């Protein structure tokens, strides 16, 4: 298998050989997650392998790869990175295709529309010092050096080539070009393969089939896939079966899918193509999804809908209470048929107009959501069922009545805020949406998007990206199980697909926790957990819920092996800790936050580039007797480039741009926010502050003749670019110096009010068949009897286990040097704050030492942090290691703190990693030098 080969090659290669180039990371709008980095690293290893084979003269087929990545895991960002890679290799022409138009529209905006909230690239894409534009095209041009992308469907691409009509792609033209083909939702292309038997899969000689209608069957679409995409375009084969310039074929086909069907034939088809695997279960375990709650009740439909509306109100209130900007939770209502959906839509409008506080009387009777002890479906995934008791308590504490909820419903769920996925002009029997509805559905998180509820049947099961969907309400009953084949029915399957769209995590900032991952798995009573939970509401149909629950587990969306586990300090060590002094520091506002001058390296900031296009016309003459066509291009005027500074932009244009960028009080260019960041007394002062920042304008006209509208557009983009550059220098917080406090004054082993509890309850995923779980259980049993390990339980990663083994192997060395030593595992209760930024983190271990041999009054507190190599770099957790080393520099053995005749030494060690030689040597060296022990 290709994936296994790549993994083995990575162990041999130097990591620098497959590091992701800066021209990729510098031009992407978002940082890469570790699984996205792994996908790209695997791709680069494969490129190295192909290049070596090519240099040896080995014949190779065109590159054809499959990226198996879960829905919501960032496939499109990986696509964007690959586009940048191939551009650098000399490619200019890209075809992006899917199997349906609905998926196409939302993807186009991600690649093309720089003002879209999900745009994937930086404002200015710069490669080799040159600004690159991305253009959507119908046909490719030879005169452009930009990235040209043709967005299409398989049917349309096939028909364009088959018909060879005006303004369509010509097969002869495509076969002359170097092309990168990107296929999304590629599992649809294997529907007929999944139906075949083994003996039916012999490779057929490709033959060009006729026009594909919208109603084309799976077999026809896959045949088009094999012939049009794989043979004629990727393989450059002519309709006569002869390859066109095969020896010079640089084309590549990159497929992306969340689901590769578990079918032997399909698995065999892709075993030499799968370059990365990050499936849904991996995405769930990475804490990038909401938890799923299946809510079944015997309520009438009206009360079931009001139950969902109450949850919507409560989520919104929690978002407001915790200052989460622009938070607007969305509800989806699913009907069985289109006509039912239309009727349900009208019924819901009437309900929201006429709802009264008295309608919520049923809530007082709900002690908790139904969860029968003999109901396996509910038992398998436990949750805090007393959600309505929590809501009632919340309302009582704040003296909120149900009339406030009613006012919220009437305001939020007006007709303009509700969308039905069936446009009024649609006359067919299938759901069909227009461009306006598609835009609203694909931008639900936008500040300007007003949609709060959606009515649908099947339209949104695939190709829909949404983060703020929190409830799905099933407005019909019954199940459609296929008893003959023992499979769940199509309705249940589509509901699982819908839930799969809705469980994507809504990112929000909270303290120092990571924005894009779940934060409260271990804080069972935290109010914000409601923002990490997704609710599916249905009638009390036990067998249906069981089907749904089982299917969710089969797909990895629900895990039923989480167990509550308690971690506390062993009783014999509690009195010892209570009598000790501990180093702590705190996060505080930076008194020197306001910049007085621009940073020195701002002088080296590349000029902001703005290309103003003139009028042009391009005529392509198709010469049937020659391979190359002739291009005739007419330009309105040659483009000239002028270098200016920001000071030269007219003052009224600058202020107009600032006004347009100030959407609300949190906007970067809001005057109060500018004054927090810069040492200025007016907006004029700020404009003076940045007056010398360089701009490079390419225009067919003189600078003084450029229309104000064009200058305004340029100025807005410039200021957004300036904002991104300046934000990296803004440090609103710092970490204070460390001070000694008595442990018992700050921490407790019970839930003592006003103190940090060292006792920790966590929900742990325990899979007894997993090697990790076996190793954790083995080590936990061993550590219970070790005097030097202070906690009564253990559960950790492989790196954390290796750190413990490292300490255990140095036990005798430590005992020779110190009177006592203990290793304290920090179960996310003790936090320290970076001196430079105030960013907090919780070091995994504290090594506590007491001196001897005439120095019994010396006490050491040593921070130890195991870290995987992939997380140790600057783009991830590198700042933590820098902070730990700065702690040793400021304190350590040369700056001992004395408290009540006792000496206290604070040390931070570099990251521990047992498998990376460089990291291990660095750790061992500092361990020996700082603690004066042999290693």
Q: What would you say about this model in short?
A:
This protein is an alpha/beta fold and 935 residues long. The protein contains 30 helices and 35 strands. The longest helix has 22 residues.
Question: What key attributes describe this structure?
Answer:
18% strand, six-stranded parallel sheet, globular, alpha/beta, 30 helices, 935 residues, seven-stranded parallel sheet
List the helices and strands and how they pair.
Elements: H1 2-12, H2 22-25, H3 34-55, E1 63-69, H4 75-88, E2 93-98, H5 101-112, E3 125-127, E4 130-132, E5 134-136, E6 147-153, H6 154-163, H7 171-174, E7 179-183, H8 191-195, H9 218-234, E8 252-257, H10 264-270, E9 274-278, H11 280-285, E10 291-297, H12 301-321, E11 330-334, H13 338-354, H14 376-379, H15 387-397, H16 402-412, E12 418-420, H17 435-441, E13 453-456, E14 469-474, H18 490-502, E15 533-539, H19 542-554, E16 562-567, H20 571-578, E17 581-584, E18 587-589, E19 608-611, E20 616-621, E21 630-635, E22 640-645, H21 651-661, H22 671-677, H23 683-689, E23 694-699, H24 708-727, E24 733-735, E25 739-742, H25 743-746, E26 747-748, E27 756-757, E28 760-765, H26 771-783, H27 798-809, H28 811-817, E29 818-825, E30 832-833, E31 840-841, E32 845-851, E33 858-864, H29 878-890, E34 897-899, E35 902-908, H30 917-931
Parallel strand pairs: 1-8, 1-9, 2-6, 2-7, 5-6, 7-8, 10-15, 11-13, 11-14, 12-13, 14-15, 19-23, 26-27, 33-35
Antiparallel strand pairs: 3-4, 16-28, 17-25, 18-24, 20-21, 22-23, 29-32, 30-31, 32-33, 34-35
């Amino acid at each position: 298998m290709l994936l296994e080969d790549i993994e083995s090659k990575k162990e041999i290669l130097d990591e620098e050989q497959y590091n992701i180039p800066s021209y990729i990371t510098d031009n992407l709008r978002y940082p890469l997650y570790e699984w996205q980095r792994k996908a790209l690293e695997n791709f680069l290893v494969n490129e190295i392998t192909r290049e070596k084979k090519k240099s040896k003269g080995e014949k190779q087929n065109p590159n054809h790869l499959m990226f198996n990545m879960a829905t919501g895991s960032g496939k499109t960002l990986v696509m964007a990175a690959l586009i940048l890679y191939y551009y650098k290799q000399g490619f200019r022409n890209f075809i992006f295709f899917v199997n349906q138009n609905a998926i196409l529209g939302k993807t186009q905006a991600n690649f093309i529309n720089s003002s879209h909230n999900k745009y994937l690239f930086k404002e200015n894409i710069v490669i080799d010092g040159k600004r690159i534009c991305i253009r959507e095209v119908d046909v490719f041009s030879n005169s452009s050096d930009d990235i040209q992308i043709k967005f299409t469907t398989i049917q349309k691409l096939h028909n364009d080539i088959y018909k060879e009509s005006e303004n369509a792609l010509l097969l002869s033209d495509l076969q002359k070009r170097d092309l990168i083909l990107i296929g999304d939702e590629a599992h649809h292309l294997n529907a007929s393969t999944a139906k075949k038997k083994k003996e039916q899969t012999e490779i057929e000689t490709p033959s060009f089939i006729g026009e594909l209608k919208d109603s084309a069957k799976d077999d026809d679409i896959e045949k088009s896939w094999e012939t049009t995409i794989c043979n004629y375009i990727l393989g450059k084969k002519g309709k006569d079966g002869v390859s066109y310039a095969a020896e010079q074929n640089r084309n590549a086909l990159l497929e992306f899918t969340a689901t590769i069907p578990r079918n032997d034939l399909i698995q065999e088809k892709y075993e030499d193509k799968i370059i990365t695997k990050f499936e849904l279960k991996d995405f769930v375990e990475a804490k990038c999804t909401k938890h799923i709650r299946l809510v079944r009740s015997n309520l009438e439909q009206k009360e079931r809908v009001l139950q969902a509306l109450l949850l919507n109100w409560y989520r919104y209130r929690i978002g407001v209470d915790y200052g989460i900007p622009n938070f607007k939770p969305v509800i989806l209502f699913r009907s069985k048929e289109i006509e039912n959906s239309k009727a349900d839509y009208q019924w819901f409008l009437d309900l929201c107009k006429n709802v009264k506080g008295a309608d919520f009387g049923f809530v007082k009777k709900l002690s908790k959501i139904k969860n029968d002890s003999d109901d396996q479906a509910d038992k398998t995934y436990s949750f805090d069922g007393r959600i309505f008791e929590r809501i009632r308590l919340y309302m009582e504490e704040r003296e909120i009545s149900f009339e406030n909820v009613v006012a919220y419903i009437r305001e939020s769920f007006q007709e303009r805020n509700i969308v039905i996925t069936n446009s009024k002009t649609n006359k067919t029997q299938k759901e069909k949406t227009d461009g306006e509805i598609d835009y609203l559905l694909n931008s639900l998180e936008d500040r300007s998007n007003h949609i709060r509820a959606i009515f649908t049947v099947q339209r949104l099961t695939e190709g829909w990206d949404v983060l703020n969907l929190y409830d799905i309400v099933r407005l019909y009953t019954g199940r459609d199980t296929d008893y003959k084949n023992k499979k769940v029915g199509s309705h249940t399957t589509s509901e699982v697909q819908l839930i799969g769209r809705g469980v994507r995590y809504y990112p929000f900032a909270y303290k120092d926790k990571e924005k894009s991952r779940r934060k409260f798995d271990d804080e069972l009573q935290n109010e914000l957990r409601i923002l990490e939970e997704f609710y599916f509401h249905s009638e009390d149909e036990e067998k249906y819920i069981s089907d749904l629950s089982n299917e969710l587990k089969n797909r990895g969306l629900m895990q039923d092996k989480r167990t509550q586990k308690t971690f506390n300090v062993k009783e014999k060590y509690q009195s010892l800790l209570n009598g000790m002094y501990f180093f702590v520091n705190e996060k505080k506002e930076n008194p020197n936050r306001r910049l007085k001058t621009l940073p020195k390296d701002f002088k080296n900031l590349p000029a902001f580039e703005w290309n103003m296009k003139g009028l042009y016309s391009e005529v392509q003459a198709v010469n049937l007797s020659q391979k190359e066509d002739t291009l005739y291009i007419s330009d309105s005027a040659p483009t000239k480039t002028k270098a200016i500074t920001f000071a030269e932009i007219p003052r009224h244009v600058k202020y107009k741009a600032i006004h347009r960028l100030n959407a609300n009080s949190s906007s970067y260019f809001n005057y109060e926010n500018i004054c927090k960041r810069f040492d200025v007394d007016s907006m004029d002062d700020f404009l003076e502050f940045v007056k010398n920042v360089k701009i490079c304008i390419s225009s067919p006209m003189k600078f003084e003749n450029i229309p104000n509208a064009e200058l305004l557009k340029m100025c807005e983009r410039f200021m957004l670019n300036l904002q991104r550059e300046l934000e990296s220098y803004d440090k609103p917080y710092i970490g204070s110096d460390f001070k000694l406090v008595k442990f018992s004054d700050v921490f407790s082993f019970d839930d003592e009010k006003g103190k940090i509890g060292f006792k920790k309850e966590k929900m742990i995923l325990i899979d007894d068949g997993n090697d990790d779980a076996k190793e954790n259980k083995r080590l936990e049993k061993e550590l219970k009897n070790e005097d030097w390990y202070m906690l009564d339980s253990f559960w950790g990663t492989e790196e954390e286990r290796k750190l413990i083994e490292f300490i255990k192997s140095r036990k005798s060395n430590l005992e020779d040097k110190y009177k006592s030593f203990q290793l304290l595992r920090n179960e996310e209760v003790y936090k320290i704050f970076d001196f430079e930024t105030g960013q907090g983190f919780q070091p995994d271990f504290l090594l506590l030492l007491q001196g001897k041999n005439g120095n019994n009054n010396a006490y050491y507190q040593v921070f130890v942090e195991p870290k995987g190599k992939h997380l140790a770099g600057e783009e991830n957790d590198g700042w933590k290691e820098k902070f730990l080393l700065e702690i040793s520099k400021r304190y350590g053995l040369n700056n001992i703190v004395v408290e009540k005749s006792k000496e206290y030494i604070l040390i931070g060690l570099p990251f521990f990693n047992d498998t990376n030689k460089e990291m291990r040597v660095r750790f061992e060296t500092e361990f020996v030098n700082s603690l004066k022990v042999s290693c």
